Predict the 3D structure of the following.
Amino acid sequence: MNRPTNPHSMTQASTPVGTHAGYMPGFGNDFETEALPDALPQGMNSPQKCNYGLYGEQLSGTAFTANPPERTWCYRIRPSVKHSHRYEKIDLTYWKSAPYVDPDVISLGQYRWDPVPHSDAGLSWLTGMRTMTTAGDVNTQVGMASHIYLVTESMVDDYFFSADSELLVVPQEGRLRFATELGIIDLEPKEIAIIPRGLLYRVEVLEGPARGFVCENYGQKFELPGRGPIGANCMANPRDFKAPIAAFEDREVPSTVTIKWCGQFHTTKIPHSPLDVVAWHGNYTPYKYDMRNYCPVGAILFDHPDPSIFTVLTAPSGQPGTANIDFVLFRERWMVMEDTFRPPWYHKNIMSELMGNIYGQYDAKPQGFVPGGMSLHNMMIPHGPDKEAFEKASNANLGADKLDQTMSFMFETRFPQHLTQFAATEAPLQDDYIDCWTSLEKKFDGTPGKK
């Protein structure tokens, strides 16, 4: 059990007396943690009376009969029914959910965007979310949406949770704090965070402006991929995921709670902070993960494996071997394959691939795919290296070569990704991206044995 030496209570980022985040290692563990001594019941979940006058409450991330069930028992100052009142529907113009198909937007094609620029307007986690693509159906809990976030202002006495989705957050610049019901997660570029469906939190700016990417997962929650013949080690190791230790607020202050439910947004007013969980135990929790700990595996003699070997997390679908979402990471690594075209090969894919660049240069696109930028190659749309990357790789001296100072990722889904109106008309779309393949030449001359 994690028992901090001093009671660990949250404070706003702007408050002079700050707290730091603390973590417990492991992915899918049954954790237990308390911010006050003996706040966590032992040997049972629901005692007749909890210590400190706390209320016991279960947060379930799966059906009760799922195997294994995912749930966390919370011991809180008020039950969450006190964090809910009459709701008022609001509009967050730029945050869209599937199904979303704009008849005036063509989603068929190869697309690439420069970084979405920061705005002069103050933007919070909610008002700064910009949906780029949607896929599947939020109402039937399949598919996903991809977003860019632009955040300059902390949420002050404002809180949020999504009943629709789990959020995978990928920062590109700036630092954020996620003050959640279960504890504090501080997040910076080269890290990711996973915020479960139904978990309430507030987002504060530690260093801004902040920009990054979000994969909104409507389907089954993210899990570590099956390793198959790779075995027990490398890729993303469970011990490198960090769950927060318990932290709580006991503040009587007018607060607003916003809920995303079936693609709509609703607010409710309450007279206190809802981040009041003093102790908890269970396996349904937020995480952070440092992508610099990802240990890539690959070919060490010849040929180019499928990019699935770089999967960090996968959200399974009902079809074995075909993911609702794969989160794939392309980071620094050595290339040593002999007699091999080393960049990603030309291909068409049953999956739809949305890529983002965190920093550096992606080996298949040395020009134009800049940090903070995105690209989309929908299902069965051909794509691959541009001419510069092809010529360089085809004629390179194939010694050991390290791809250095590079980190890009992919949100890959079995569903077609539909562009939003924002992605098609307001985001900085590169109109000439399709031309990166125009200069590829016909090299065939029919001479036997010629390469």
User: Anything to note?
Assistant: Confidence is low (pLDDT under 50) at residues 1-7, 11-18. The first strand starts at residue 23 and ends at 25. The chain has two helices and 24 strands. Residues 294-434 form a domain with the Jelly Rolls fold (CATH 2.60.120.10).
